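#struct-queue
[09:14] JT: dropping the first one here, sequence first, then the structure tokens:
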Amino acid sequence: MDIEHVFFDLDHTLWDFEKNSDLTFQKVFDKQNITVDLSSFLDIYKPLNKEYWKLYREEKVTKSELRYGRLKKTFDAINYTISDELIDVIAIEYIDFLPDFNHLFDYTFDILDYLKEKYQLHIITNGFEEVQTKKMKSSKIFHYFDKVITSESVGLKKPNPKVFIHALETANANTDNSIMIGDSIEADIEGAINIGLKAIHCNFENEKINSDKFVSINSLLEIKQYI
């Protein structure tokens, strides 16, 4: 495999979004005196957040609707009375505080050190532009990457093929010498495969995957077996 360029997703792939997000909510709730059981809140919030991100990828909700709606629906579901004004404050503080936490998945530095010697590394992310760079700098991985392509800079979101094509053009790469690594089968893996890119799926939750179109790994160190 003549790989020269490795494109990574960020959240849920290198940056441990769930752990960092949980810590962020704890910080925001403490600051705003939100008296809810955090685990009960998160049990409702996490699937709702996934639904909203899917709608966001499909251009069915805006960024502001995502930020407000996922919180409003969660508080309603747990019967916690809260004003729209406070929801807006929480939404803003959540985004502000999120990059303060910098937990990465196991072996992130090991695999980035290994790959950096051999390949040009890049990020393709659907995450909000103002947050992603802060996350990468806070967790000390920003310097590993030559190009960082955000969906907001393109004006479209993965799995839209134009995002991947734009990323390849930005990195001066092509489908033959590049590979995509990410956690979302829909956004990262199928999106990449649909334009002819090879792909590796990060399956850190050990879900049952049946596909011969791509390989799934349970640890970042397994990338060494494929490139």
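[09:21] JT: and here's the second one, same format:
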Amino acid sequence: MNTSTSLLEVRDLRVAVGEHTVLQSVSLQVAAGAVVVLMGANGSGKSSLGLALAGHPRYRVTGGSARLAGEDLLAMGVEQRARAGLFLSFQAPPDIPGVKNNLFVRTAVNAVREARGEAPLDAFDFLGAARQTAARVGLPDAMLNRPVNDGFSGGERKRNELLQLALLRPRLAILDEIDSGMDVDGVRAVLDLVASLRAQGTGFLVISHYQQMIESLAPDAVLRLEQGRIAESGDLALARAIARTGYARTAEAAVA
């Protein structure tokens, strides 16, 4: 694993939604091939950070900077960020009625391949790769021909996110509670896929409350977000302290 290359650099990032400030000042780094776990109580700003970095129009950056592989991430449009290698899994993946899953994913994959200077995949080649990957993440073949997430269970929606992650092979993946709603086999699929992509140099920012998964990820760093700021940073010992004492008591200990 190569952790010497700085992949994502966030400096003093401030974000507002309407007139409400959701991120006060966030600074962090994710190296190529590294896993950074972001923890925090509900409402601390974890999902807001992911959505702001992905370019969601509702989240207005009011200060600071973010760079992906040395490029100004905040100067890019949403599509440019995806083409540059940024992937965000949604905490609650939406459905897109009328748009077939395989067409949706193939269009995204080919857009990213074009940005990398790679030839597009035709429908036949893509379907073969998609079926193989679907089996790997535990998503039934039939879901490839269904509209995106339409009628999918919570676990199936998350497995569909894993399908996209595996096929897109991003530089940086932000996983927002990817384990939520997953059964044991689903969590194992997450861990296997993260390990595989990590070995290829993908950097991960993982938002999670699930201690067993955090332990299994063997993260390079653990950060605790509180009221829109990184209140504490550490390693697995920090995650274990949070699991043992809760966010409120961890915050009190950090101040003491």
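[09:30] RK: nice, looked through the second one.
[09:31] RK: The two ends are 36 Å apart (CA to CA).
[09:31] JT: good to know. The first strand starts at residue 6 and ends at 17.
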